[in-house]
Amino acid sequence: MSKSSNEPGLNIEQVRLISDLRIMHAKVYELFEIVSVIKKRHDEGSIRRFSDHAMLDQDIKRVDEIYLWFVRLKEEGLRLTESNREEPAVLKGLKIV
Fold first, then answer.
1. How far apart, in whole angstroms, are the C-alpha atoms of residue 51 and residue 46?
2. Do the Cβ atoms of 65 and 73 come closer than 8 Å?
3. For residue range 1-55, what is the model confidence (pLDDT) as tens digits?
4. CA–CA distance from 9 to each of 6, 16, 20, 23, 82 (Å)?
5. Can you tell me the distance from the alpha carbon of 84 to that of 79, in angstroms, rounded to the nearest whole number?
6. How far apart are CA 16 and CA 24, in angstroms?
7. Residues whose CB falls within 8 Å of the CB of residue 3, separated by 6 or more in sequence, listed in order
8. What number of other Cβ atoms are within 10 A of residue 83's Cβ?
9. What DSSP string runs through the chain?
10. What are the tens digits of pLDDT across the range 47-89?
11. Whether pLDDT at 97 is above 50
12. What are phi and psi of 10, to 5 degrees?
């Protein structure tokens, strides 16, 4: 991965963000895999019956918060994508025949 000599390098906060995001991606994958195995091996009634209810409820709340954050990121990404797809102002209102 070569960079042009005139492109500025990443600052420390950008490097930290990239590192944090890579860790997050790994942990999300890990959580997905663990949950998939539990769902495959056990029915929901057993999971509820044998779980630490307070801890399970806390886990559910945390995952809900994470899910809502991902939804906000997704919506913002869709808005940015849509704004980038808009026709240039020069072409707006012109009919193509």
1. 8
2. no
3. 555 567 789 999 999 999 999 999 999 999 999 999 999 999 999 999 999 999 9
4. 9, 13, 18, 22, 29
5. 9
6. 12
7. 9
8. 8
9. ----TTS----HHHHHHHHHHHHHHHHHHHHHHHHHHHHHHS-HHHHHHHS-HHHHHHHHHHHHHHHHHHHHHHHHHHHHHHHHHSPPTTTTTPPP-
10. 999 999 999 999 999 999 999 999 999 999 999 998 887 655 5
11. no
12. -80, 145
Supply 49's token pair: 């019956």
- How long is the chain? 97
Structure tokens at 88: 């240039």
